[in-house]
């Protein structure tokens, strides 16, 4: 049968322990120094164990504090993400309102341009009508003079035929 590495180590360890016990049985024991050394070693290790316990407690407190900080930071990240989403939604609405306002401005500008063109046309039309009115007033005044002249030459009333001749219609 072949021994594996682990089995061989166990056999060697057992043989060493058995040899030590056997050898220890033949050597007289005067172990006050050994007991003192063992007591000192146990005392040192107890102190180190207490230090280890204190350090472990401090590490647990730090880990707990870090977990709390992590959770707070996650909550802040989530809140910032939610705020970003809300801001993006608001920005989209504002951009849509801006597009609508720009379209309305464009429509109003077109209406203003059209009104300006109509105003220019209306101003020209008013000028033309005022000129026609002046011509008509001048013609009316001339006809009135002719009527007055004809009426003063003839004391008899004018007939419709005479008026038609004077007016030329």
Give a description of the structure.
The chain has helices at residues 5-26, 32-153, 160-167. The chain has one domain (47-167). The chain is rod-shaped. It is mostly helical. The longest helix has 122 residues, at 32-153. It is 90% helix and 0% strand.
Give the class from helix and strand content and strand pairing: mainly alpha
Secondary structure: number of strands: 0
What Rg is obtained from the alpha carbons, in whole angstroms? 62 Å
Relative helix content: over 70%
> What composes the largest sheet?
none
Question: What is the domain total for the residues?
Answer: 1
Distance between the termini: 152 Å
* β-strand amount: under 5%
Number of helices: 3
**Average pLDDT taken over every residue:** 80
Shape call: rod-shaped
Order of helices and strands: HHH
Residue stretches low in confidence (pLDDT < 50, at least 5 long) are none
Give a short overview.
This protein has one domain (47-167). Helices cover 90% and strands 0% of the residues.
Keywords:
rod-shaped, 3 helices, mainly alpha, 169 residues, single chain
Secondary-structure blueprint of this entry?
Blueprint lengths: L4 H22 L5 H122 L6 H8 L2
């Amino acid at each position: 049968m072949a021994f594996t590495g682990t089995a061989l180590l166990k056999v060697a360890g057992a043989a060493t322990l058995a040899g030590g016990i056997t050898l220890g049985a033949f050597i007289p024991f005067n172990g006050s120094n050994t007991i003192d050394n063992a007591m000192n070693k146990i005392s040192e290790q107890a102190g180190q164990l207490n230090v280890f316990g204190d350090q472990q407690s401090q590490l647990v407190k730090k880990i707990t504090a870090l977990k709390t900080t992590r959770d707070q930071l996650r909550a802040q990240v989530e809140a910032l993400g939610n705020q970003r989403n809300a801001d993006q939604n608001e920005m989209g609405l504002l951009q849509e309102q801006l597009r609508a306002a720009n379209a309305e401005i464009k429509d109003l500008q077109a209406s203003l341009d059209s009104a300006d063109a109509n105003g220019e046309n209306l101003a020209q039309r008013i000028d033309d009508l005022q000129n026609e009115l002046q011509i008509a007033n001048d013609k009316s005044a001339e006809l009135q003079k002719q009527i007055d002249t004809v009426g003063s030459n003839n004391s008899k009333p004018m007939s419709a035929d005479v008026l038609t001749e004077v007016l030329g219609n």
